[in-house]
Description:
Blueprint: H1 10-26, H2 33-42, H3 47-60, H4 65-79, H5 84-93, H6 98-111, H7 114-126, H8 134-147, H9 152-165
Amino acid sequence: MGTASSGEDPLTIDITKAKQQALYYLKFRSRSSAEMRRYLNRKGYQAAIQEAVVSWLQELGYVDDLQFALQWIENRCRTNPMGERRLVQELRQKGIPQPIIDQAMVGFRESVDETALACKLATKQVRVYRGDNTDAIKRKLAGFLGRRGFHPGDIRSAIDQVLSKE
Length: 166
């Protein structure tokens, strides 16, 4: 790379360097546009450079918030199942705008029966609580499923189903 004294614009040099760092950051997993902006901000790039790099990545298809949200939901369902409320919370933390979250959650609602998923997780987790009294088991399962982002109705249903089997 040249320097500003050799005729190259310092802004062009910064954008080129920021693009290289952004591509390196994408090497490990896909990122939301907000995550990319935060990363570039931590690297010390001004807002104009952050926007230019994020726009460039979006044009190339390397940063796509909807695709990111769909992949995040799919990955979570496969590796660490949780309810809609927790998924929405995580996507917000990743900087995904609410309209995109709403769009991504449509597929989740269509493909996942949250009550059945809560029941499946409760069935696995109840083994850990063997020997505890019924009230303690209910309380612990409710806390576990609540932290996993399930709705109260699904939690009650799952606990009732699991305890009826015990």
